[in-house]
């Protein structure tokens, strides 16, 4: 049995990452794609060998042969089309961040639950086996007690002034775009919800006033902290460092690549991996299908997206107000 996917929009990540990955998956197939204009939809469908093309999102949602939709639209449209998809009886895989505010995410999840459909926020990196392996090493005590997590995700796209990432009203900015990766990583590594956030950011008037770079401290219980930085006007880099009392785990390329990671202990350093032939996006599609077919629950429940958004909200509030923000439950 294969899950029949419809894709709402022809964003770069859809065309170059998610659609090819679904087509390579064991449990999914891309049955249709929709765009705001039929010409774009037909062009993308022909390029990627997708059977159906629609000139509106509404037409795709009305197709009875579509089981689930993938939504790679600009952030401010996630809520609207998730709810419309749920009302049409379609399961939803929505690009990160799920929405612009916690209240929106709650409304989206409630709509999906009411319709009896699955909602998943597309953090594909968390499904990679090295994530589970890193947590296993941490839990084993091999690197001692956890003291801190450091993470980063930066790139330089500042010259593309018309990019949707620089539209504040559309949910632009580095925290929404790449900061969400370190923030979710801290929560699954530490295994708890944060207590407070303090973030300093560079807001660029040249780019719609969005945060082009942000650096922050996320506080957890027991004196454990997570420091991070994210940016869209800086040299490319990404990674996670998990620091313990007796060693550390270093994951370079943590959010997009499948490189081995390094475990540093008192006895030296060793490589874990390589993890060859694994596509995070394909894993995501197969886990999603298994959950829809009732074979296994999705590893991250919809409520996880609410917790993600609460932290993002706190980080943006801290950056804009230049103050420490306490999270309450």
TrEMBL record:
**Pfam families per the UniProt record, alphabetical:** GFO_IDH_MocA (PF01408), GFO_IDH_MocA_C3 (PF22725)
The signal sequence is: none
Q: Which residues cross the membrane?
A: none
- GFO/IDH/MocA-like oxidoreductase domain location is 132-250
Keyword Calcium set for record: no
Its domain of life reads Bacteria
**Segments forming domain Gfo/Idh/MocA-like oxidoreductase N-terminal:** 3-120
Instruction: Give the UniProt keywords, A-Z.
Output: Oxidoreductase
Q: Which PANTHER family match?
A: OXIDOREDUCTASES, TRANS-1,2-DIHYDROBENZENE-1,2-DIOL DEHYDROGENASE
Tell me the protein family, please.
Answer: Belongs to the Gfo/Idh/MocA family.
Task: Please state what the protein is called.
Answer: Putative dehydrogenase
Tell me the organism.
Paenibacillus cellulosilyticus
């Amino acid at each position: 049995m294969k899950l029949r996917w419809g894709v709402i929009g022809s964003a770069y990540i859809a065309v170059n990452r998610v659609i090819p990955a679904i087509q390579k998956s064991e449990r999914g197939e891309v049955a249709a794609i929709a765009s705001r204009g039929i010409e774009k939809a037909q062009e993308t469908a022909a390029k990627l060998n997708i059977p159906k093309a629609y000139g509106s999102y509404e037409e795709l949602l009305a197709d009875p042969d579509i089981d689930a939709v993938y939504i790679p639209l600009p952030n401010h449209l996630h809520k609207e089309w998730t709810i419309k998809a749920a009302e049409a009886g379609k399961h939803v895989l929505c690009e990160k961040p799920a929405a612009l505010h916690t209240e929106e995410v709650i409304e989206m999840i409630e709509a999906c639950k009411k319709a009896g459909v699955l909602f998943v926020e597309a953090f594909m990196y968390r499904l990679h086996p090295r994530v589970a392996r890193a947590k296993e090493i941490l839990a084993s005590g091999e690197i001692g007690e956890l003291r801190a997590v450091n993470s980063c995700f930066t790139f330089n796209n500042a010259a593309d002034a018309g990019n949707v990432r620089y539209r504040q009203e559309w949910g632009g900015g580095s925290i929404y775009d790449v900061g969400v990766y370190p923030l979710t990583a801290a929560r699954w590594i530490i295994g708890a919800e944060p207590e407070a956030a303090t973030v300093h950011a560079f807001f660029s008037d040249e780019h719609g006033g969005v945060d082009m770079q942000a650096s922050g401290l996320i506080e957890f219980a027991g004196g454990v902290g997570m420091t991070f930085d994210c940016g869209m006007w800086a040299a490319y880099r990404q990674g996670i460092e998990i620091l313990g009392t007796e060693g550390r785990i270093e994951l370079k390329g943590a959010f997009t690549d499948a490189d081995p990671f390094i475990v540093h202990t008192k006895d030296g350093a060793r490589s874990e991996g390589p993890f060859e032939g694994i596509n995070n996006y394909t894993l995501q599609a197969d886990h999603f299908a298994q959950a829809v077919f009732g074979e296994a629950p999705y590893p991250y429940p919809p409520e996880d997206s609410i917790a993600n958004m609460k932290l993002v909200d706190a980080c943006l509030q801290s950056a804009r107000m230049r103050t420490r923000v306490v999270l309450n439950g």
